[in-house]
Amino acid sequence: MASSLRINFDKSCLVKIGRNFLMDECWAEIFRCPRSTLPINYLGFLLGGNHKRKDFWNPVINKIEQRLAP
Question: What domain of life does the UniProt record list for this protein's source (predicted)?
Answer without folding.
Answer: Eukaryota
